[in-house]
Amino acid sequence: MDWDFDVFAFAEATSMHPLVVGGVFLFQRMAVLDKVCVPKDRLANYLLAIERGYVASNPFHNALHASDVMFTTHYFLQAPLLRDLTGPLDKFAAVLAAAVHDFAHPGLSNAFLVNTRSPDAIIYNDQSVLEMFHISGAFRVMHTVPGCDITEFMSRAHYRQFRETMISMVLSTDLKVHFEHLSRLKTRVATDAYASADRKDVLLLLGQALHTSDISNPTKSNPLMMAWTQRVMAEFWLQGDRERSLGMPISAYMDRRHPAVSQCQMGFINVIVKPLFVEWRKLLGGIVQPAIDCLASSLQMWEMEGNARAVGWEGLGATCAESPSVQLRHTLSIR
């Protein structure tokens, strides 16, 4: 798969089943199913249940995003370092973790759920609420929906490792732990720790593979980057609408009346995305270079926008959720 794989076109080509078709394809290509004792029909059943569990009305956090992250995670697994440090079970768990990492996402942030005292925030004690919810729900489907138990034929030891990897990876997508994990990654890069990696190092690497994939939208080509930006801003503003209706302070960049798109994206790139991808490039080598090149292009584009107002963005919302067509990239203009 190329770095610039077009998941929008793939979704249309698969009759809107990118997660099921894409997931089965990737696992067959990886030749891991027999090695991890997972029947293909069980896998397809499970992926279909997961795909259906994503909220289609979410502009961003839906099955299309999950599919994009799944393909991107698989791309990173081709790097020699990750390829050599992981066996079939970890490779299987890694791609599956990407597929389920935002399962049943409500389209709202952790902060919103905590501040509104949502039932999930109460259940998970305000700690990584969404991430706990996603991975717990994914395992619940696995063990309660008929025909979906992909772990039935795994040994106990393999199941424990599989579950450990899945949980660790999904919890690593919480932005709250971004800087802590980035610091650990930098230390290991500086000391060449992966020359003799232990289990904790492998889990950190796999977690960062998923996290890096999850925030990779600005590192794709401009047309794809714009499509994802439109979607994430639409979802932000829907939350802002709810916050306004509840009399809550509107979260940063979530007020559609003040669509500071350029500032939002430049901050995200400079503070979160770029520092991680720079370290990721040091670790994985040339396989990350296309992402670095696209990121520079994205940053240049947003810097050119400066403080200009995003024309046509204020009404963005349901349109993004209704059609994943790549034509969406060209529906809005910014100046």
Describe, in plain words, how this protein is organized in 3D.
With 335 residues, the chain is mainly α. It has one domain: Catalytic domain of cyclic nucleotide phosphodiesterase 4b2b, CATH 1.10.1300. Helices cover 63% and strands 0% of the residues. It has 16 helices and no strands. The two termini are 33 Å apart. Residues 318-335 have low confidence and may be disordered. Zn(2+) 1 binds at residues 65, 101-102, 214. Keywords: Hydrolase, Metal-binding. AMP binds at residues 61-65, 102, 214, 265. Zn(2+) 2 binds at residue 102. One of its GO terms (biological process) is signal transduction.
Keywords:
mainly alpha; 335 residues; disordered C terminus; Catalytic domain of cyclic nucleotide phosphodiesterase 4b2b; 16 helices
Compact description:
Helix content is 63%, strand content 0%. With 335 residues, it is an all-alpha fold. It has one domain: Catalytic domain of cyclic nucleotide phosphodiesterase 4b2b, CATH 1.10.1300.10.
